[in-house]
Amino acid sequence: MKPGVTTEFETTEFAGITAKIINPFPSPFTVLDMTIKPGFGAPADISSTEDKLFMVIEGQLKYLIGR
Known about the structure:
Blueprint: E1 10-14, E2 17-21, E3 32-36
Antiparallel strand pairs: 1-2, 2-3
């Protein structure tokens, strides 16, 4: 990705989630701007090879931590 400012992002939709991919590969981390419909979201999964950071701007989000 070239340096600069853009408003054109790749967007994907799944499980009631609309995700804009802000910084695509190659990058040491991924930044997504996500909108999740109430009552929807990704199924529980384990991300053993990556850390995640979520910032909730509006509403509530339920996390499953550990197993």
